[in-house]
Amino acid sequence: MEPMITSNRNRLLVEERRRDILAVLETEDRVTVEGLAERYGISTVTVRGDLDALASTGALVRSHGGAVKRTDPRVDYPIEFKQMLHQGEKARIAEAATRLIHPNQIVILDSGTTTAGIAQCLKASKVRPVTVITNALNIAMELTNTNDISVVMLGGMVRPMSYSLVGPQAEQTLRSLRADHLFLGVDGIDPEIGITTPDILEAQLNSLMIEVSKETTAVADSSKLGRRSLSVIGKAGAIHRLITDTSANETHLSALRAMGVEVVTV
């Protein structure tokens, strides 16, 4: 009976440790693999196993080098926080999106961490010349002084959480412009409710971005599918394409395909 007793004891220790990890996240919002390994006196391999197991149940979100507390889609979080989430997936999505951009096009890059990744990929690419319209300060700064990339910055009120500009001034400028392709970052995409974001003014501007663009590609990692945030940008069928990662829920993807949305998984 001793092996069974030992097994039960080990399982209890694992469960206690994982409960404690969640308790730490409640107070600190973020944990690292190295920090947890030191805290519990275990290997980093064991810690990664714990974090992966907890992430699979939805108890936390894995980030580069650790994990963060699961976020509420109705709440707007600082861009620095969002940058830690799903980094590998966002990088693949950004690369796939950049391949859709062609020389002499006018593209809109919405604010967001994945669209910021597109800006980085575009800067490193040989796709020239390109005109980029954006409401994101960080994206404008990324592309400024890049040969043969012209940047049009929308005016408006600054949202410190996302480094984005919104409001009547941004909308007025955008109404006088036209674009070949919009790359839209979203906080939630639900086949029934539509495309959503936590900020009302951001939603209004995003809706106008879709209106002035010939083609719209939403870029969203799989955690965004099925999520519903506060403000509706538009119906899910308003976008032409979704680029997401391979962990995306197939039920949601099938529903989007039925609406005529092209789905690309990377």
The low-confidence runs, each spanning 5 or more residues with pLDDT under 50, are none
Taking the alpha carbons of the first and last residues, their distance comes to 49 Å
Tell me the radius of gyration: 21 Å
Question: Count of helices?
Answer: 10
**Percent in strands:** 15-25%
* Strand element count: 15
Into which percent range does the helicity of residues fall? 40-55%
Shape summary: elongated
Computed structural class: alpha/beta
Spatial strand arrangement across the major sheet: 6-5-4-9-12-14-15
- Largest pleated sheet: 7 strands, parallel
What order do the helices and strands follow?
A: HEHHEEHHEHEHEEEHEEEHEEEHE
Q: Could you report the average pLDDT, rounded to the nearest whole number?
A: 91
Report on this structure.
The protein is elongated, with a radius of gyration of 21 Å. The strands form four sheets. It has a seven-stranded parallel β-sheet with strand order 6-5-4-9-12-14-15, sandwiched between helices. Strands 1-3-2 form a three-stranded antiparallel β-sheet. It starts with a helix and ends with a strand. It is α/β, with parallel strands linked by helices and 266 residues long. 42% of the residues lie in helices and 24% in strands. β4, α6 and β5 form a beta-alpha-beta unit. α6 runs parallel beside α7.
Itemize the secondary structure elements and their pairings.
Layout: H1 2-28, E1 30-32, H2 33-40, H3 44-56, E2 60-63, E3 66-69, H4 79-82, H5 87-98, E4 106-109, H6 113-124, E5 130-134, H7 137-143, E6 149-153, E7 157-159, E8 164-166, H8 168-175, E9 179-185, E10 188-190, E11 194-197, H9 200-211, E12 213-219, E13 231-234, E14 241-244, H10 250-258, E15 262-265
Parallel strand pairs: 4-5, 4-9, 5-6, 9-12, 12-14, 14-15
Antiparallel strand pairs: 1-3, 2-3, 7-8, 10-11, 11-13
